[in-house]
Write a structure and sequence with these properties.
heterodimer, A: 793 residues, alpha+beta, Phenylalanyl-tRNA Synthetase, Chain B, domain 1, OB fold (Dihydrolipoamide Acetyltransferase, E2P), Phenylalanyl-tRNA Synthetase, Chain B, domain 3, 6 domains, seven-stranded mixed sheet, six-stranded antiparallel sheet, 20 helices, 29% strand, B: 348 residues, BirA Bifunctional Protein, domain 2, 2 domains, three-stranded antiparallel sheet, 12 helices, rod-shaped
């Protein structure tokens, strides 16, 4: 909302600089987005001409400048501007002149007294450019001219951000009213000229009093449309409107002034003598002023005569009844339309006007008559004509609720200690009716403050007008209650920390993806959460998987020269389960490029499948329910042979392995080997608690006995079978084994491989004797032979 | 052999070998000397074989003499060996010629995302202030995201221009939550006061991605409901929160504002931490930086959640994580958080 300082002063006497006023408004919760200063805010500055320049004896950049003031008077001043030159006409402020709030006195500059100064544009408050250098004026301007006359009167245009609860501030009167409460100053100029009125106005037939609880109007006959007055034009331009003609301009002017939207109809376009306020018929066609034709439904509210509509109530007039240059008789509507009705229609047809914006947020039902009178005054002054009597249809006058409260309650909400007298003072200025004779006090807000409905609202008013600094920082109070974090949160944090420790950098991505990505990653659109009003193509769904974004991050990084990427993301994924949205925490990661670069004394090293498997094993260490098995049917975006399923209690929760080269290509990744993993956390959350202490397995103090075991077996025997056999062979001692070599090649018969382990045998309570170790070794070997067909090498 | 001859031989061996051991140049020569003196056929060993022929009387003299010599030589050899080994090791070590000024080999270590870092600082502080972590769905029904929070049906925040609407099979209209305040309604619906929660997380707004807007961003919500909770309690706790976050000297101020779910409502500014309130580009010369929105929980919100506003009152606040992170980490484009350039991520 734009507010012009001079216009505000029509309603209240104010003596602040624009900055000071901005501070007052800010303290009331009215944010000032910007202040645009206009005109001159100085006095006693006149035009002088430079006649001579000497160097200042004590400075290398200051000058002593002689000026001709006209009428034979001269003056010498000190000036430091770089652009000073003989012959220039410049603004000279002499001792006693006022620049903004500063009154100029004599100044001693490096030992020489200067009885005035040549001003820059900034110093005159005309600009805020911080440019050095004096303002050079046109040579034609006579000496001695008051510089103020060259720049017009000082004014300031405030751009205010009005919160949605305060539509009453969307006018100059509204802001003045707020300041009048704050400053305890009366409002003025609220009594426009009254006209008796000649003849009846049109009848008004309101067929929906909920949507239109008040309709005030009058005719003015015999007007002669003209240009509006310079001040109206100037002010409308400041509001951002182009002045058109008086009849149109004045309706806008009154709206900016009083907040009440008005509409002027050309009387001759209204058939009969009744204005009808009604809901539209379904399918009713209506052509707006701007030429658009709408097909309406029953929710739209129409103004018209008995036969046709002439306006979409509170939003825009029709093309059929607008004011013309040659209009002679007008009907002025000053009505109140309820916010939801205007809101729905303006939303639906995407029409927004200054009028609809005010009705949507809530106009003042008490303002229609005053606004009509003010408009009449301005119309008659500008266009002549004879006003009719006022027709005011207001069947059920609106009353705000009566709020009962005690001063203690107000201070209780604020935790403050505002004195009773101060509260009484504030509330009596705010209220339509206020009674503090006895507790509880009673308060009723005027019609323009529909937001004051209970004591919490009044507490805010008390704090606003007393100043929010009246709220102290309260005394400490203990709050002793302990609750665990949600499990998913702690689990996500644990896994994220581990991944960071394992060399992965955390990413955050926008949660949207497109249909193509869904399909590429094996998801059906019907199981994904679609966004109805997606902002861009390719951002239509909430992601059920984190990998697509990580692949994009990989391509992005590689394009920027970050070739070695280890990335992860840990956040929620989305799906539809039986139509209902479901959210699951998931963790995904990508590793590409090299683990270590080629460097001095060292070759480069790339990750392989067993590395990423190691990452997964370390990442999920301690989650006993987790196991890995080769995927029989890897997802389409993964390598068909290099992909393992991650299971929790035997159920698949994710995958890891190599990404399919085509997926890489489609995502703009130049490399053909990228490792990836993704899994969901729900199944892991069940047995997880970050708060629980975990009992450890005891460690033995006795060193193990080591043996190497090398066996040859069929190539087709999977390692998992060997591993399982080693793990399940019943032994009298403990066994730990490490695979140290797998060999396939010409030193072995075709179709055979050899595997070599280091076996560590131990007992919790003693060092093993050789015989015990030998026996255990033999048992293992026999079992391996039996289960896997292995032979000792 | 006479005792006298034995003694002379002993003296002779001692002289000879002590001298040789002392002048030995390396460990191998010392070992040769050990064999020559003390080995099975060594000089001393051979000499001692004569003891068996001595009289008991002579043995009493000769035996200890021989043993003493053996010990002396053994010790000398061991000492010499150790000295030579140390010398050789030192020589070997000193032969190493490594350029220690070559660069470090990169040891990979992952990093948390700057927003995670910022969020963790905030949750750590709030935890110390007694706030429990609470969560809520990101795809939320309008009831919990708007209605229960006293946001009227036709509030502009509910427009498609501001809010993302989800297409689901649910009978009620679902949105991507527009703020973390849905956790307020979710939590209060299930818990009676006293309650004190924080709810960090992701929120969604229908804003195009540009330098200062993102359709996805992060907030942290705080809510405290108990008997007699006031704006003054809010001021105390937010002051502590901001001091924890920005330093012990941090000052805050309240400005009136409007949010449908709080009454009274306040914008909370902190005194600019870059210029101590003197005015600088970060605070645009005002000396204050707008940090978060807060207020006393609107009685309608309590009522909607089944909490009696005549008995209990509360405060709530909501703060943007990106905003803080951008300011404190000198990041001037919000998109930097979602680009995930490793050169940026690696700095945390």
């Amino acid at each position: 909302m734009k507010i012009l300082y001079s216009w505000l002063k029509d309603f209240i006497d104010l003596d602040y600089t624009p900055e000071e006023l901005a501070q007052k408004l800010t303290s009331l919760g009215i944010e000032v987005a910007s202040i645009e200063k206009k005109g001159a805010d100085f006095e006693g500055v006149s035009v002088a001409q430079i006649t001579g320049i000497e160097n200042h004896p004590n400075s290398d950049h200051l000058h002593l400048v002689d000026l001709d003031l006209g009428n034979g008077r001269t003056q010498r001043v000190v000036c430091g501007a770089p652009n000073v030159a003989v012959g220039q006409k410049v603004p000279l402020a002499r001792v006693g002149a006022r620049l903004g709030k500063t009154v100029l006195g004599p100044a001693k500059i490096r030992g020489i007294v200067s009885e005035g100064m040549i001003c820059s544009s900034d110093e005159l408050g005309l600009t805020n450019t911080r440019a050095r250098g004096i303002l050079v004026l046109d040579e034609q301007i006579p000496l001695g001219t008051d510089v103020r006359t060259l720049f017009g009167k000082a004014d300031a245009l405030f751009d205010l951000e009005i919160t949605s609860n305060r539509p009453d501030l969307m006018s100059h009167l509204g802001v003045a009213r707020e300041l009048s409460v704050l400053l305890n100053k009366p409002l003025k100029n609220l009594s426009p000229k009254e006209y008796e009125g000649e003849g009846e106005s049109l009848q008004v037939d309101i067929r929906d009093t909920q949507a239109c609880p008040r309709y005030t109007g009058r005719m003015i006959c015999g007007v002669k449309n003209a240009e509006s007055s310079p001040i109206i034009q100037e002010r409308l331009i400041a509001m951002g409107l182009n002045p058109k003609n008086a009849l149109v301009d004045i309706t806008n002017y009154v709206m900016f002034e009083l907040g009440q939207p008005l509409h002027a109809f050309d009387r001759k376009e209204i058939n009969g003598d009744t204005i009808v306020v009604r809901r539209a018929e379904k399918g009713e066609k209506f052509t707006l002023l701007d030429g658009r034709t709408l097909s309406l439904d029953e929710e739209a509210l129409m103004i018209g005569d008995k036969e046709k509509a002439t306006a979409l109530a509170g939003i825009m007039g029709g093309a059929n009844s607008g004011i013309q240059e040659n209009t002679t008789d007008i009907f002025i509507e000053s009505a109140y339309f309820d916010a939801p009705t205007v809101n729905k229609t303006s939303k639906k047809y995407e029409i927004s006007s200054d009028s609809s914006q005010r009705f949507e947020r809530g106009a003042d039902i008490g303002m229609t008559e005053l606004a009509l009178k003010r408009a009449t005054e301005l119309f008659v002054a500008c266009c002549g004509g004879t006003p009719s009597k006022i027709r005011d249809v207001y069947p059920l006058p609106y009353q705000n609720p009566i709020v009962k409260f005690t001063p203690a309650q107000i201070n209780g909400i604020l935790g403050a200690d505002i004195a009773r007298e101060k509260l009484q003072d504030i509330f009596s200025r705010l209220a339509l009716r206020f009674d503090a004779a006895a507790e509880p006090w009673t308060f009723q807000a005027p019609t323009h403050r529909r937001d004051l409905n209970h004591r919490w609202d009044l507490a805010e008013e008390a704090a606003r007008f007393a100043g929010f600094d009246c709220i102290p920082a309260g005394e400490s109070r203990a709050f002793v209650q302990f609750n665990d974090n949600p499990k998913g949160v702690d689990l996500l944090e644990l896994l994220s920390q581990r991944l960071a420790g394992l060399g992965f950098c955390e990413c955050k991505n926008i949660d949207f993806l497109g249909e193509k990505e869904l399909k590429d990653f094996g998801f059906e659109t019907k199981n994904a959460v679609k966004i109805k009003n997606a902002m861009a193509k390719g951002w239509d769904y909430l992601r059920p998987t984190l990998l697509p974004a990580l692949l994009k991050n990989t391509a992005f990084n590689q394009s920027r020269g970050n070739t070695d990427v280890a990335l992860f993301e840990a956040t929620r994924t989305f799906s539809l389960i039986k139509g209902f949205p479901a959210e699951t925490y998931a963790v995904a990661g990508i590793q590409g490029g090299r683990m270590s670069r080629r460097s001095f004394f060292q070759e480069e090293k790339k990750p392989d499948f067993y590395f990423i498997k190691g990452i997964m094993q370390t990442l999920l260490e301690g989650f006993e329910q987790v196991s890995f098995i080769p995927s029989e049917q890897p997802p389409v975006y993964m390598h068909p042979k290099i992909c393992m399923n991650i299971l929790a209690n035997g159920k698949k929760i994710g995958i890891f392995g190599a990404v399919h080269p085509l997926t890489l290509k489609n995502n703009g990744i130049k490399e053909n080997e990228i490792w990836a993993f993704e899994f969901t956390l729900k199944a892991l959350e069940k047995n997880f608690s970050a708060q629980q202490f975990k009992p450890v397995r005891p460690v033995t103090a006795f060193p193990p006995s080591l043996r190497d075991l090398s066996v040859m077996l069929d190539k087709a025997v999977p390692f998992s079978l060997i591993e399982q056999t080693l793990q399940s062979t019943p032994l009298a001692v403990n066994l730990h084994f490490d695979l140290i070599d797998v060999y396939e090649g010409e030193r072995l018969p075709l179709g055979k491989k050899s595997v070599t382990f280091t076996l560590a045998f131990s007992a919790p309570d003693r060092t093993l004797k050789d015989a015990e170790t030998d026996a255990a070794f033999e048992t293992l070997l026999e079992n391996l032979k039996a289960k896997t067909g292995a032979e000792l090498r | 052999m006479t005792l006298q001859e034995f003694k002379e031989n002993c003296a002779q061996i001692q002289r000879e070998y002590t001298e040789k051991i002392t002048s030995a140049a390396d460990v191998a020569s010392v070992e040769e000397l050990r064999v020559a003196a003390l080995g099975r056929k060594g000089a001393l060993t051979e000499l001692l074989k004569n003891l068996k022929d001595f009289s008991i009387e002579d043995k009493k003299t000769a035996g200890p003499l021989g043993n003493a010599l053996k010990n002396t030589l053994t010790q000398a050899i061991e000492e010499k060996t150790a000295a030579l080994q140390t010398k050789e090791l030192n020589e070997q070590l000193n032969r190493v010629d490594l350029d220690l000024t070559l660069p470090a080999r990169p040891v990979p270590c992952g990093k948390r995302h700057p927003l995670s870092v910022a969020q963790k600082r905030m949750t750590d502080i709030l935890s110390k202030l007694g706030f429990t972590w609470a969560e809520g769905p990101w795809v939320e029904d309008e009831k919990h995201n708007f209605d229960m929070l006293n946001i009227p049906k036709h509030h502009p925040a509910r427009d498609a221009q501001d809010t993302f609407f989800a297409q689901t099979g649910s009978p009620v209209s679902m949105v991507l939550r527009t703020h973390t305040s849905n956790v307020q309604s979710r939590y209060m619906e299930k818990h009676q006061p006293p309650l004190r929660i924080m709810a960090p997380g992701r929120v969604f707004r229908n804003d195009s991605l540009d330098a200062t807007h993102s359709p996805v961003f992060h907030q942290i919500e705080g809510l405290y409901v108990d008997k007699n909770v006031s704006m003054a309690d809010l001021k105390r706790d937010l002051s502590a929160f901001m001091k924890g976050l920005l330093g012990d000297k941090t000052e805050i101020r309240f400005r009136p504002s409007f949010f449908p779910f709080t009454e009274p409502s306040a914008e909370v500014d902190v005194k600019c931490v870059f210029c101590a309130g003197k005015g600088c580009p970060v605070c645009k010369g005002s000396g204050w930086i707008e940090m978060l929105g807060a207020g006393v929980v609107h009685p309608n919100v309590l009522k909607n959640c089944g909490i009696d506003p005549e008995k209990y009152s509360g405060y709530a606040f909501g703060m943007g994580v990106e905003r803080l992170a951008m300011m404190m980490m000198n990041i001037n484009d919000i998109r930097a958080f979602y680009e995930n350039d490793l050169r940026l991520l690696n700095q945390f």
